[in-house]
Automatic annotation (TrEMBL):
InterPro entries per UniProt: Aldolase/citrate-lyase_domain, Citrate_lyase_beta/mcl1/mcl2, Pyrv/PenolPyrv_kinase-like_dom, Pyrv_kinase-like_dom_sf
Domain HpcH/HpaI aldolase/citrate lyase, first and last residues per copy: 29-194
Protein name: CoA ester lyase
Superkingdom of source: Bacteria
PANTHER family noted in UniProt: CITRATE LYASE SUBUNIT BETA (PTHR32308:SF10), LYASE BETA SUBUNIT, PUTATIVE (AFU_ORTHOLOGUE AFUA_4G13030)-RELATED (PTHR32308)
Pfam families recorded: HpcH_HpaI
Keyword terms, alphabetized: Lyase, Magnesium, Metal-binding
Cofactor needs: Mg(2+)
GO MF: lyase activity
């Protein structure tokens, strides 16, 4: 562990100074594409206008014999595309793979000035982040980069979950963490073969009436990912970084996808991965606060003056703590409205109505 005194010192001579605060940029959807897939690559310029984050994926879902094509494809797409305000991320191959060293050397050298965040899969503990941290500093120095690259960890091993707090605080580069439910399920030896989402077998049942154990007993499906997401959210909040849900693999089931995304949003996640174009609008809808909630939050903030004391609004008590909750919603709405004029209009109209 670095001493708190040198936590913000660059890890290589000539590397840029680490950031002191992680920017809370809109990142409702991290849209995955395979840069070696020509059809997907052709859609990148249009997708850049629709999504908050575009991620060129080099790891799982890219065939082993296409790894170099994906890496080179990402370099060439990046050089020829204007991403505007949309962030560009990449997911490198895992740290024990034969590809990761060339991924980092090539990407930082060729497109380090355009990349925002590097997603690192299968992170087991702080040692993995420390390795990437030092290597990135050396590569940034050699490439003459002025802005440090940020790092995002995927929580997809049992050790990663056990060590999530130390991972979140391992480096000033840590931007956030995502849940990786498929690898995590395998690592934990869970018995689900689904990529994220619920499972009908994971349930609780109401008590029997009398001796009849069979009839009239309602079952409620539970969320397999609740514990992990909640733990990830706490670790991220504690270290001032951002938590994300990960993949929802049943592309056809847009209804359950929306539910899973909303659970994550309500628990504190700022965004999710989108694997197919059909998931983009779902993520936008879910991870943008509802105009009615924004109007309410703004109303409470306005009524609370300096934010202390207690007032009654529509029969509900508001105090110092509830105004803080409202500020979370209102500040997120302001940040999203600055990027999305349609949303800005919806928020302002709903607020006017609520204050009338
Ligand atoms: C899931 C897919 C393989 C489905 O692809 P396809 O069968 O081609 O779907 P469609 O025919 O419905 O596609 C319609 C058109 O849309 C294009 N398309 C599809 N997906 C994308 C995309 N992500 N970005 C841009 N464009 C996309 C198709 O090319 C079609 O185009 P056209 O023919 O011109 O109309 C595919 O969606 C896919 O591969 N998605 C990404 C998968 C991925 O990235 N997986 C890795 C992340 S999940 C993971 O790694 C697990 C995690 O780590 C964990 O452990 O939990
Ligand atoms: Mg994975």
């Amino acid at each position: 562990m670095r001493s708190p005194k040198d936590f913000f010192a660059p890890l290589a001579v000539g590397a840029p100074d680490p950031v002191r605060e992680i920017p809370a940029l809109p990142s409702r959807m991290i849209h995955f594409f395979d840069p070696s897939n020509e059809k997907m690559a052709a859609k990148v310029p249009d997708l850049a206008k629709k999504v908050d984050v575009l991620l060129g994926n080099l790891e799982d879902a890219v065939r082993a014999d296409r790894k170099e094509a994906a890496r080179n494809g990402l370099v060439s797409i990046t050089k020829s595309t204007d991403f505007g305000a949309t962030q560009l991320w990449t997911r490198i191959n895992s740290l024990d793979s034969p590809w990761v060293l060339d991924d980092l050397i090539t990407l930082v050298t060729e497109i380090g000035d355009k990349l925002d965040v590097i997603m690192v899969p299968k992170v087991e503990g702080a040692q993995d982040i420390h390795y990437v941290d030092r290597l990135l500093a050396q590569l940034e120095a050699r490439a003459g980069l002025r802005r440090p690259l940020l790092v995002h960890a995927i929580l997809e091993t049992a050790s990663g979950v056990a060590n999530v707090e130390e991972i979140a605080g391992a480096s000033p580069r840590m931007q956030g963490i995502s849940l990786g439910p498929a690898d995590l399920a395998a690592s934990r030896r869970m018995k689900t073969t689904r990529v994220g989402g619920g499972h009908p077998g994971y349930l609780v049942r109401t008590d029997p009436v009398g001796d009849d154990l069979e009839t009239g007993r309602t079952t409620y499906q539970q969320d397999l990912w609740h514990y992990t997401v909640a733990r990830m959210v706490d670790a991220c909040a504690m270290h001032g970084i951002l938590p994300y849900y990960g993949p929802f693999g049943d592309i056809r089931d847009v209804v359950a996808c929306e539910d899973q995304f909303r659970n994550a949003f309500l628990l504190g996640c700022v965004g999710t991965w989108t694997l197919h174009p059909v998931q983009i609008d779902i993520a936008r809808k879910v991870f943008s606060p509802d105009p009615k909630d924004v109007a309410w939050a703004r109303r409470v903030i306005a009524a609370m003056g300096d934010g202390t004391g207690a007032v009654m609004i529509d029969g509900k008590m508001q105090d110092d703590a509830s105004v803080k909750q409202c500020r979370v919603v209102a500040e997120l709405a302001d940040a999203l409205a600055a990027r999305d004029p349609e949303l800005a209009k919806a928020y302002d109209e709903a607020t006017k109505e609520a204050l009338a």
